[in-house]
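Hey, quick one: can you model this chain's 3D structure?
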Amino acid sequence: MSDHGKTDKPGLGRDANEKTVVACMESGDSAPIHEGTRTVHLPDVRSFGRLEQDKWLAVKNLEESAELVEACKQYLKACDPTDPSGIGREFDDHANCLACYGVNVGGELGDDRDKAKTGWIGHVRDQRRQAMLDELADVLQTVGNLITAFGITDEEVERAMSDCLKRNRRKGRL
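Sure thing. Here's the predicted structure for all 174 residues.
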């Protein structure tokens, strides 16, 4: 395929640089892709390390996925205005502790303390988002390692993604 947007195979296409496989509508397919969906372009993943076809590598994918779930949960808590993980409370505790040693964290000027607290919550949220992204990269790495170890070709991955797209259309998810 040489023209952007035309399909290579049903459910698959290529972007302008002819490298990244993207999901697209099959010709003649009337099922719409819902607004708000997008095609995610993943960076190249270079496999390395222990690349043996065994249970250990499969379980490593599960372990990394579990760590991603936990990082996502921590990030979601940091984004929740009700502050279920107590980030604001921790700030207050630290500010009060510092005040015992004569360090003023806006204690007398309520607005300054509120600004500092808001900044701290944003800082923690950003740290948790980065932790989530780090875990996501670990998942992609272990998936790449599994693909290499099991001798799965790029074409097989493309076909599996096309089949996944079709299954999700049939289930009404797209």
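One thing worth noting: The beta strands are 12-14, 21-23.
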